[in-house]
Amino acid sequence: MELSYSIIIADDHPLFRNALFQSVHMAIGGANLLEADSLESLLALLEKGEDPDLILLDLKMPGANGMSGLIQLRADYPDIPIVVISASEEPSIVSQVKMHGAFGFIPKSSDMKTLIAALNQVLEGDPYYPAALLVNQTQQHTELADKIATLTPQQYKVLGMLSDGLLNKQIAYDLNVSEATIKAHMTAIFRKLGVKNRTQAVILLQQMDSEVQ
C-alpha cells in the first residue's frame, strides 16, 4: 500500500510555489499538499491541527526575518521535519540552516531530478544537504552563530523588530506584552550577544542575515 504524505509548501512567490507544487506531485504521487505564503499563514495551518510529514520552507517571506522563521518553527514544532528551499545558496547560509535544526537544504536552482531525489531522501528519514554547499565556517562566524542560537524564539523576534527600527513601546504593542517585558528581553539579548546597546545587537543580526537574499 502506497504511503500518503502531507506536505506544506511555504513560499511567498506564487510562481515558484506552483512550480514546487507540481514537482512534489511528480516526486510523490497522491501527496496531500498545503500552501502558505507567509510565516503567519503557515503557523495558522499548524495551530489548526495540521500535522504535516514535511514543511518546505523559504527563508525569505513575510513574517520571517532571515533564520527567525526556522528558529520559531523548530522551537514550537520540534517533531516536524523542515527542509529549507532557498535561492540563497552560500555555504554559510547552508551551515546556519543545518545548525538551527533543519532536516535539509534544497537550492532553488536544483533541477527536477535533484529535487525529486532530495524529497524522496528526506521522506525516507535521511537529511539532505548538497555536499558542495557544506563547508567549515570560520571561527568568528561560528562564534556569532552560537551566540544567536542562544536566543529564545521570542528574544529573536524582539531582536528582529529592533532591526526593523521599532521602538520598545511599538514592539510591546505588536507582541501584546508590557514595555517592561520588552526591556527584560533586551537585557537578556544584550547579555547573550555580549553587546552594550541595541545598535550593536542589530549589527550582529545584520551580519548573520546579510547573505540571505
From TrEMBL:
* Positions bearing 4-aspartylphosphate: 58
Entries under CDD domains matching the protein? LuxR_C_like, REC_NarL-like
Instruction: Tell me yes or no: is Phosphoprotein among this UniProt entry's keywords.
Output: yes
InterPro entries, per the entry: CheY-like_superfamily (IPR011006), EvgA-like (IPR051015), NreC/VraR/RcsB-like_REC (IPR058245), Sig_transdc_resp-reg_receiver (IPR001789), Tscrpt_reg_LuxR_C (IPR000792)
Q: Which UniProt keywords apply?
A: Phosphoprotein
Show the Pfam families listed in the entry.
Answer: GerE, Response_reg
Q: What is the lineage of its organism?
A: Bacteria, Pseudomonadati, Pseudomonadota, Gammaproteobacteria, Vibrionales
All copies of domain Response regulatory, residue ranges:
6-123
Q: Under what name is this protein listed?
A: Transcriptional regulatory protein DegU
Is Phosphoprotein given among the entry's keywords? yes
Q: Which residues form a coiled coil?
A: none
Q: Where is the HTH luxR-type domain?
A: 144-209
Q: Which domain of life is it from?
A: Bacteria
